[in-house]
Amino acid sequence: MRPHPLKLTESIAIALTSLVVGLGLAGCGAGKPQASPSQTTSATTSTVPPSGTSATHTTTVTPAGTGSGRCHAADLKADLQIQKDGSAMAILTNKSSRTCTVTGYLSYHGLLADNSTVAVATKHVANPGAPVPITLKQGISAFSGVKWTSCDKAEANCTVLAGLRVTPPEDTTQLTATVLGTDAKPLQQLTVSSAGFTAGSLQPASQGVVFP
Description:
This protein is of the alpha+beta class. The chain has a domain at 73-199: Immunoglobulin-like. Helices cover 17% and strands 29% of the residues. It has two helices and 13 strands; from the N terminus they run H-H-E-E-E-E-E-E-E-E-E-E-E-E-E. It has helices spanning 5-30, 37-45, and strands at residues 76-84, 87-94, 100-102, 107-111, 117-119, 122-124, 134-136, 141-148, 159-161, 163-167, 175-180, 190-192, 197-199. The strands form three sheets. It has a nine-stranded mixed sheet with strand order 5-4-10-11-1-2-8-13-6, with no helix packed on it. Strands 3-7 form a two-stranded antiparallel sheet. A hairpin with a 5-residue loop joins strand 4 (107-111) and strand 5 (117-119). The termini are far apart. The relative contact order is 0.19.
């Protein structure tokens, strides 16, 4: 039995309409590619700098001479207070604007009347104890004891000093110490035997540093 001509025509028209609609939908989506999974993840995890800030990293540099470290002779001043004949207390004070540290012992040289320097032996002993690191802020002092044997300046091995120069720990530069007598006045003359000086360790407090 042959199909009715009218029904066959309607079927063909319906099929063509479906094909056109399908092609139209495909065409509309062709210009809008979908984001890949990696693109989506990147968008959700990216970091945006806060408003008013820059993404550039900066490093703050501390100007030379303002940080802490070992004290140098230029940072310090030295005073020697005579306690009794042949014994004194050395006071090492930070005169600079930076904080620095000292650890160890002072060494001594003599000053002659003509202001020339003369070598004097210095023996280091752990009095009143082993050296400890001492942090010196501006105006803060460290202390140590020093002793020597006085002598008659007429003796051949007697050194007559008009002053003292001090070398801080781990340094090679000397600084002139202010030497004060028991009357708190500058000392004009100091006699030291050939045995030289015996210096105790630098300590953060003056108690106990003077040799008995």
